Amino acid sequence: MERARPLPCGDRTIRNTASSESSPTTSDPGRRSSTARSLAALALGGALLLSACDSVSGIPGDDPAPAKALTTPPAAVPSAAPSTAATSTLPPPPADAPEVGAVPGVPEAATALRRWAADLESGTIAELQEKCWTMAPGNVADMYEDKQTILATIAQPGTATAKTVTWKGRSATVTVERGAIETGYACPRVFPAGTEIGPNDADARHTVRRYLARFVGEPLDPADKEGDYPLICKATPAEWDPNGTGSPTAPPLANNPGKLTGVTDFAGQQIFSDRIGSGYLTVEVPVTNSSGVTKTRTFTLAEGDEGYCIGDVSP
């Protein structure tokens, strides 16, 4: 099975009712079918036109053997206890790495961001997209373009809240989640000074892409597991209300995290997003099951302090 990989190009709005912009129609990758495991598989070629530049490539998947029971990949469901990131195994930042302003109360923040800053200064966007796989590749390309402005901003003292750490400069604001700092290598988000800080539609599409990649057995990174990098909205507190009824409930997917068990493939270049109300967004993507049937699934996501989470999948 081919491994998902980021596309080194900037993000483009795929579809958003607020902007009335849409991307060109893309062709679906050719599906592959497998015969008995003792026979060589014959690959069916198909041209793939890339349109969603915040995306990763499609992930062709082999149908499971008929006798094999369908199970939910461990990476796709919450674990009883998240594993602890082994930050102690990371090497210290290079001696000549860019300076990062200290953050009162969070001494490890500067070190985690400094590791990333060293790569920003000496590496390429493609390399940063590989390392910052939790972010949409298009966002990495767009946000990390102005290196000098970023380096000048993170040299300032930082401030911390319960969820994030932020560095502010004259031209930009750099922010990173506390959870990313705990891994020892912090990929930040960068915004022009004075603009609203928060996730965008590309983040929502990338969240769904990561979620489906786990189900087909090819997470974007081996470390991308639900126990360590949650993508499903939490059951409590019960705040799920995408229709604005005023009577929030628990997110349906929180009580059924294995709902998509049996998924073998998805069309990574045919992911569309629409905003449906304050704080909520839907993402549509063609998904193929173990019987070879493809249907468009609609994912509903909620915006939170740490980005988007998936609360429901239909039909």
Automatic annotation (TrEMBL):
Biased composition (Polar residues): 15-28
Record field: compositional bias (Low complexity): 64-89
Top-level taxon of origin: Bacteria
Region (Disordered): 1-37, 64-103
Protein name: Lipoprotein
